[in-house]
Design brief:
Elements (H helix, E strand, L loop, with lengths): L5 E6 L12 E9 L7 E11 L3 E8 L8 E3 L7 H8 L3 E7 L2 E6 L2 E6 L6 E8 L3 E8 L1 H8 L5 E9 L8 E5 L10 E10 L7 H9 L3 E12 L3 E5 L5 E4 L2 H9 L8 H5 L3 E9 L16 E10 L3 H30 L6 H31 L8 E2 L8
Parallel strand pairs: 2-14, 8-11
Antiparallel strand pairs: 1-4, 2-3, 3-11, 4-10, 5-11, 6-7, 7-8, 9-10, 12-13, 13-18, 14-17, 15-18, 15-19, 16-17
Amino acid sequence: MKGTLALWYEPLGGGVEVPEPRPKVELHLNLWRDLPSDTNFLDIGIMFDSQEQLKRFYLYIPARISVGHIVNLSGVLKSGATLNAVFNDVVQRGISGDGWYDINRSGVVDRVFEIERRHISLERDRDPVFGDGTVITFDEKISKSIREAGKRGYVRFRVRLEGAAATTFSSDLAARDRAFASSPARLELTEFRLNERRSFPRTISEAADRGGFHITTIHYFLIRDLEHELVMQHAPFEKVRRLEAPLWSEYVAGIDPQDPKLIEKVADRLVIYHWKVKEKPPAKPGDAAKPIEDFVAFASFRTTSTSLLFYAFVIVLLGACGSLLAAFVTQPLAEWLALEPAKPRTVLASLLLLVLLFVLITAIAYLAPQAGARNRPFKSSFKRADSPRNDV
């Protein structure tokens, strides 16, 4: 869990000063976790509401990403059911052209553009503080298509978070006493950040400050498996619901088309947590709305697992110790009762075994109460998932 996403653009004509008004965008951010492929996915949708000044746009991801990790999702969206699920509305397909198609929802026509590999280039960034990062550049061709569409333009793509990148937005905290607990708890922290300036490398901060978008709305969706219990969250939900398998089946299948059983494994077990943030309305007539400067979403989840193998090992170990104890104690005892001197090696081995058993019993007696204390629900100053909403 490190760093922050950054989104910015380069205006037409270049120059040091960015012309006003800045392009307005609405962001759809979906973070998929707990998938059978052991890969996390970040789906990013950008709706360009005004784009007259758009020459290029850029996305910084605080992880090492390659071109093969970026997947165009416009093709997956062509299904009517998938469009309805993504836009939470009844959506109809309209006319189409080379690399685009129109959608109609509630009488408003928007244009969806395909993000092809020829439209993007990658530049790696290595910062001594924030580590690996990748800048994705969306070229002038796709920006020109969006700019000249004459209507709102939408792009949607997926970033596969594999290997070291899988922990970009999450980290695990295992219980220190997990070896002595029958069902050890694991706490997972998920923190998603966008445009948080203090978490930028310096070069990224300068570029993002110069060409920041006017962000009007952010929809952030965190998709998790049912077995993960939500412990705390940064703010009240906009919505929380189970994944509707009939609506999302084709979209989820797009994660790994080679696995025909993916829907059976995943769809019915996922929960969608939805947070929404909007720009602040004008303070008084004549003023402009205040855009969203940055966004941070935090949630922690708890899950448990059994330690049956460990307990089986302990039982076998204790049984072996009991057998050894019987063998080493009874022999010197019989020799003593027979008034025969015990062999020094036998006596030493018996004493050593007794000392080891005493240490083992003392350690278990000491750690057991602490394990019980740690497994009790803990208190936190964060808002709990079941806490009432507080708008003060």
